[in-house]
Amino acid sequence: MFRVLLAALLVPVLEAPALTLDALVAEVDAANPSARAAQHRVEAATAAITRARTPEEPVATFTVREVPTDPRMWMMPRTAIAQPMVMGQLGWMVPITGMPAVRGRMAAAMRDMATADVRMTRIALRRAAAVAWWQLWLNQEAQRINREAADTLEAIEQVALAQYASGRAMHHGVLRIQAERESIKTDALALQQAQGALVALINALRATPGRAIGTLEARLHQRVVWNEDKLLAAALRNRPELAMARARRAGATAEESMALRSLVPDPMVMFMLEARPGFIPPMPGGPPLPETPMVGAGVAIPLPVFAPWRQLRDADAARSRQRAAMADADAAEQTVTAELRAVLVRITTLEQREELIVNALEPRAREALEAAQAAMAAGQASALEVLESRRQLQGIALELFNTRAEREAALADLDATVAGPALQAQEGAP
Predict the structure, then answer these.
(1) What is the 3 state secondary structure string of 221-251?
(2) Contact present, 143 and 60 (Cβ < 8 Å)
(3) Which pTM was predicted?
(4) Which of 226, 293, 295, 414 has a CA-to-CA distance to 241 between 20 and 30 Å?
(5) d(CA 82, CA 69)
(6) 293-329 confidence digits (pLDDT tens)
């Protein structure tokens, strides 16, 4: 009955197509909303560069005035018979201080920060997908071990009942076996619950809610002797946190330059044109006015009266942000170095633990279980001894798969630490 129930719970998972880690990472890269949002921010920041480099727009002004036509009415224009006069003015702020180029550098720094942010987002998503994938693989292996334990326990129970019927086994031994059977059922339900949570997490990462996941095609990585110096050089070269700090420094430098250049304001060049009526009478006793249109040019320069008190403080603030960005870069380098060394120690420890389990613990535990089963069949051992040996072997098997899953998760952390495939960084690939 227990195996039928467990098989029914596993049907949706086993009927789904198999999933590899590389396929999952590719789906997360392509479909995760956080990655797409970060990429859109890069596109927006890139589009802003051209806008920032564009000079100020020209300013055109048109004015219509009335000119009196009766020379006696110059002193009383309100009662004069007048003709219209149109005056046009075109002005443009000439960027002699190079302010558009400075704004472009600041916008480029914002673009670089957005690019670093999208890389950080994708690295975090890939790491989360890899860790969830290996946890699900561990869950499926634990369910397999649980089913094998149920089959083994059933055989032990049959032998114990036969011994009890013949008077060789004690009643409490049979009860212990039955209690162990119920415990296996409880473990199976807990594993099913954990599996559902992991499937939901993976589907959330790849933005496919409700999608089933089949058996996982696991490919364990071979052991590698890691070169810490090469990995550290790759990490310091590729980590987006360091690129973010460099972009912040470039933005602060551009901000300082903008503040200092604002001390010398850009002039505005103006061109004027007046279109007058065909004949304008002069003032009494005055010279005749020309009938041709009037053309003029001028230059307007803003007076930087309050600029020093404002812009110099903005420059000081920008320099402080530069120093903060440099300090952030130094702190990020120290953090990357510590993370790399910690994950390498973790990988080495897990590999040593795996070797100990495979070469020593598991063979001895399996041999002890086989010996206890043979002794129980010959009537020389009780079912409780076999039960304890089986439980020990099951715990060691779970520890082995847990160690392997932790090692693969640590390798995913190593990839995230060097911001790319660690094996390529080890081989010196860009």
Answers:
(1) CCCCCCCHHHHHHHHHHHCHHHHHHHHHHHH
(2) no
(3) 0.77
(4) 226
(5) 5
(6) 667 777 777 777 766 777 888 888 888 988 998 998 8
